[in-house]
């Protein structure tokens, strides 16, 4: 199924905006769309879409970010805002290590649809367990942020959602819901910047060679940003209302359907069993 270039980029922007911040994995959804709609875009374009969703995070948390930088300017690392800075730095280290290792050794082998189906199911299981989380910790400990950083690192695997695994990790460790939500999104900012910088260097000529104009890329970014804003509000509502685990039903169903479709396509005799 061929889609005109402009509609293709807007379509991908819509998918990115919806799925980046909902705990359903934007990377996997983009991969599925590219596979079943015969789309072909460089990884750098997908990272440009990530910049759109990052811009939404900066806008959504603009007051918190302003307070954090004010604390940094005054050398204040003891207030609630000042304590966020070293925690983000510490949490970003395991994220970076896992991301680099994945890119060097695993990227080419773990992006297939059957693998994505399995990681969808794993991610759904993780998110669903937050139904049983108890809020009994108010302060973000270094143990918690390191584990959140590890979780964010593993979200590089297609099918594992960044917001899904980081928020789930914090909630399962007993963190207060609003604080888990906020730190998860703030933690995503340096990770996205790092991803973009790394891929921009490796694929600096890929965007122009793909045939995608800068006007089309900007249009996709705008769609991503607008839709992403409402996605963040939905996630916050779900986290605060103790309904975050509801997203697990969607990703589990999608994982099972994708696994069945992959088996049927590769092994037609499976259809007779199913």
Could you please describe the fold and organization of this structure?
The protein has helices spanning 5-19, 26-36, 43-60, 62-73, 84-106, 113-128, 142-154, 162-172, 177-202, 206-209, 214-240, 247-266, 269-273. With 274 residues, the chain is an all-alpha fold. It has one domain (5-273).
Give a quick rundown of the structure.
With 274 residues, the chain is mainly α. The chain has helices at residues 5-19, 26-36, 43-60, 62-73, 84-106, 113-128, 142-154, 162-172, 177-202, 206-209, 214-240, 247-266, 269-273.
Give a quick set of tags describing it.
single chain, 274 residues
Q: Mind sketching the topology for me?
A:
Elements lengths: L4 H15 L6 H11 L6 H18 L1 H12 L10 H23 L6 H16 L13 H13 L7 H11 L4 H26 L3 H4 L4 H27 L6 H20 L2 H5 L1
Q: Assess the beta-strand content as a share of residues.
A: under 5%
Mean pLDDT: 87
Poorly predicted runs: none
Rg calculated over all Cα atoms: 19 Å
